[in-house]
Amino acid sequence: MLMLLLLILGASYLHITNGVFDMSVTDIIKTLLRLETNSNFDLVIFEFRLPRIVIAALVGIGLGMAGVVLQGITRNGLADPGILGINAGAGAAVVIFMFFFQLRLMTADMSSWMSILMMPLFGFIGGTIAAILIFSFAMKNGHLDMQRLILTGIAINSGFGALSLFLSLKMSAQDFESAAIWMAGSIYNANWIFALTMLPWLLILGIYVYRKSYLLDYFQLEEDSITSLGIAVEKEKMKLLLASVGLVSACVSVSGSIGFIGLMAPHIAKQLVGIQHRYVMPVSALIGAGLLILADFIGKTVFAPSELAVGIVVSIIGIPYFLYLLVKSKA
Question: What residue range is the signal peptide (predicted)?
Answer without folding.
Answer: none
